[in-house]
Amino acid sequence: MKKLGIIISIIVSLVSFMFISCNDTMGDSDARLSAVKTLIEPVDGKVIALEPSASASVYFEWDYVKAEESGTAIYQIAFDKQDGDFSSPVYVMYADNNGYYNHVTITHKLLNKIAGMAGIMPSETGTLKWTIFSIKGTKILKADLSNSIIITRLAGFADLPIDVYITGEASEGGTDLSKAQKMKVVSNGTFEIYTKVLANKPFYFTDGISGTPRQFYTSNELIKENGTTTITNDGVYRITLDFNTGAATYTLVENIGFFFCPSNEVLFELPYIGNGIFKATKQTVTFKQEGWGRDQRYKFRMFVRENGGQGDSKELEWGTLNQTDSPPTATSPESYYYMQLVTPTQWDNKWKLMSDFDGVPADYTVYLQADKPYTHSISK
User: Comparing C-alpha atoms, which of 36, 45, 41, 88 is closest to residue 66?
Assistant: First the structure.
């Protein structure tokens, strides 16, 4: 009995020691956090002229906090006005890899937005400050210093239009404002349209089709107010206007063709007939006989020239928005035919023709219009 008491006493002592030891260290390693002490890139006072290109970006980097001081931390980059102290920054975002990297790449387009939030007007030059917050658990520490960047903003618009239309003598609707073609909303402040434009005749863009709407035109790839635009060559163009950055792009659409996957070629073109519609009538597609059956897979190829038609010919592809490996039926939803631009391949992102169209003349129509998803139809 005495031996049992000794054993129990030893166990209690061990448990008590373990509890005390845990209390002495528990939470210390998790609670320790140090501030970032070095900002590497961009250097303090770097001058950045923002560009409208979607690929333009700025790389930000700083030193990791020491592992022995804080273990694994995550980071946020914060921006503030030139006289701000980051107590209420104008914009905060996580570093790359959900905050675990000591760097982040930020597009010019986002920097343009941040600069606007800091009160820098479109086309003007101003100063932003940036710093880094290191975070672990509920603890957050601001870096010991901040750097400034001197930014020249893009020529974007503070008051973004909700709708945009193309009109004027060179447009499909002519000078009748009520017949202006509506552009498709790609994202907030960004619009595009597939339309025919006549050379050496004026056209412009508006935010309405009645009364006295705002008027926009393009010059040197920039959107401006109160004027008209002309182009040097007739053609069907994809026109994109980004009012966030003030950028305008014109891409000449040379043609759209029916691409038959089994033969890896375009079988016929779909001529442009107006209002964003490309249509081929009474075309016959004969399915390819394979050992496993008849192959009826297809897509559409589009050939374009960027830079207003001055660039090299480029091949794009319209494929499925909603992936499928089955042919449609008479009751298939409209979404079966929805399209999106994809990387050209022989087999990916394809549709299948219904068996009724094997060797049978049919009309093939592509609709690139503002009031519906980009789509197509096949009918006898």
Answer: 36
